[in-house]
Amino acid sequence: MKNLLSAAQMREADAYTIKQQAIPSIDLMERAAKAFVQVFMQEVTEKDTSIAIVCGPGNNGGDGLAIARLLAHEGYSNCEVFLASFSAKQSDDYLINLARLKEAKIAVTPLDEVARLRKSEATVIVDAILGSGLNKPLTGDFLALATLVSELNRKVIAVDVPTGFYAEGQLSHYNGVKAELAIAFQQPKLNFFFPESVQALARFKVVDIGLDQDFIASQSSRWKLTEPADVARLLVPRKNFSHKGTYGHALLIAGNETTMGAALLAARASLHTGAGLTTVCLPQSGLIALNTALPEVMALPRTVDLSIDVFDQFNAIAIGPGLGMETENERLLEQIIGLKRPLVIDADALNLLAKRQDILAELAPGSILTPHLKEFDRLFGPHENWWSRVATASEEAQQRKIVIVLKNQYTFVCLPDGEIHINPTGNPAMASGGMGDVLTGILTALLAQGYTVADAAVLGVYLHGATGDELAKKRAVVSASQLALQIPKTLQKILKEIK
Ligand SMILES: NC(=O)C1=CN([C@@H]2O[C@H](COP(=O)(O)OP(=O)(O)OC[C@H]3O[C@@H](n4cnc5c(N)ncnc54)[C@H](O)[C@@H]3O)[C@@H](O)[C@H]2O)[C@@H](O)CC1
Q: 313 exposed, middle or buried (CB, 10 Å; 0-12, 13-18, 19+)?
C-alpha cells in the first residue's frame, strides 16, 4: 500500500531527501521540472504550440522557470514566460532559475498588471503561480490572476497543483485556477481523490521526482493508496486438488418482485469471483429467473417461516441488493443481524438500518457496509462535504469495528484500525444501476473463500474498478452484467502478474 503523506510530511520528505542524497534543492527542482516536461511533451506534441508559462514567486514558480528553459531546449519555439511575483518574496531557487533563464536568453514579461496576460495568444497555459506552499486563501492580484487564467479558457496544465488548490482539507468555495491537467510531484495529493476537486482539475498525472521511498514508507499516515502490487500480493491462486468446498459457500439475501435483477447481478458476480457455491435467498417469484439465468447458483426461497439454522451452512452472508423495504424484510434483517455474524450490508438493508439504528448498533464486528453517498448520509446524517463524510466513515468504522466501503469514483475503504484505503480503479463508464450489486457479490465471494474482511474489501473494490477500467477501454458505457462476466479475466491478469 502506498503511504499517502500530508503536504507537511511531503516537505519533510523533501528535506530528508536533500540531506540523505546530498542533492541540493536546486537540483531537486531541476529533476521535478524534467519529470514535468516528459509528461508535458506527451500532452502537447506540436512543438510550435504557443505556450504561456506563468510563474509565481516561490518554488512552484521556480519550477515554471526551469520548465520554460527545458521546453526551449526541447525545441518548443513559441513559449512566453510571465512573472507573477507581485509583492511576495522570491525563493532562492526561483532566483537561481530566473538567472539561468536570462543566461539562456529567454525573455520574461513581468505581470505588473495582471491584465497583461489577456493579450497572450497562447493556447496552452502552464500554471506555476502557487503550488503546495499555499497557506491562505487567494486574494488580491493572485486571485485576479487565477481567475483570469481560468477565464481565458485555454488548455491549462498545472505544475504540481492548480494555483489555489489545497492538497488536503475541505475544498468548498474553490476560487483558484481551473486546470485541465495537474502534473503532480511524487504522489497524488489527497484532494485529487475527493469529488470536490472537479472544480479545480479534470485529471491528474503523477511523476516520480526521486524523494526517499524508505522515508515516505516510514511516516505514519492513515491514508493508503491501493496499488497493483498490493492486490497481486493479496490474491491467492486456486490450489491443486481443491474442490468447490475449498472456496466456500456465499449467500446473498436479495431481490424482490420488481428488483430481482439486483439478486441475479450479485449472484453472477459471486459466481465469477470464484465462490465454491453461491446461493440466493430470494422470493418464490424469482426462482424461474434465477434458474434460467444462472444455472450454477442455488436458491433458498424466502418464506416467512425460514428457520434461522438454515444460515449456518454459509461461509459468508450478504443482505440488501434489491431487497425491498417491506416489514417482513426489516424483520429478516433483524434476524440476520441477530446471528451475530459478520455480514455484508448493502442497498435496501442499509436503508432499513437508517430507520432502525437500534439494529445497526447490534451489527457484528467484521461486517462490511457498502453505502454510496446517499445511503451513507441516510445512515449517519447529512454531510456538507466529502472530507467530513470520510471523517465520519472512518470514526464509525473504528467505533463499530467494521469496514465501511464509501463508494465514489475513488472509493474510500475505511478500516476498523483507522486506515483509509483509497481505491484508484473505476471510471464514469461504470456509473449505472446494478454496479453496487456486483460489488456486493464480489465481496461476499471473497469472504466465502476465506479472505480477511480488510483484504476482501480492499481487493474486492480494486477488482471491481479494474474490471470496469478494462471494459471501458473499448466502451463508453459498461453494464453491471458485462462487468460480472469479465471478473475472471481480471483475476487471471492479476495472477499472471504474480508469476
Ligand atoms: N519535494 C517537493 O515538494 C518539491 C516541490 N517543488 C515545488 O515547490 C512547490 C512549493 O513551493 P513553495 O513552498 O515555495 O510554495 P509556493 O511556490 O507554492 O508558494 C510560494 C509562496 O507564496 C506564499 N503564499 C502562499 N499562499 C499564498 C496566497 N494565497 N497569496 C499570496 N501568497 C501566498 C507563501 O509564502 C509560499 O511560500 C511545489 O508545489 C512544487 O511545485 C519542486 O521544486 C521540487 C520538489
A: exposed
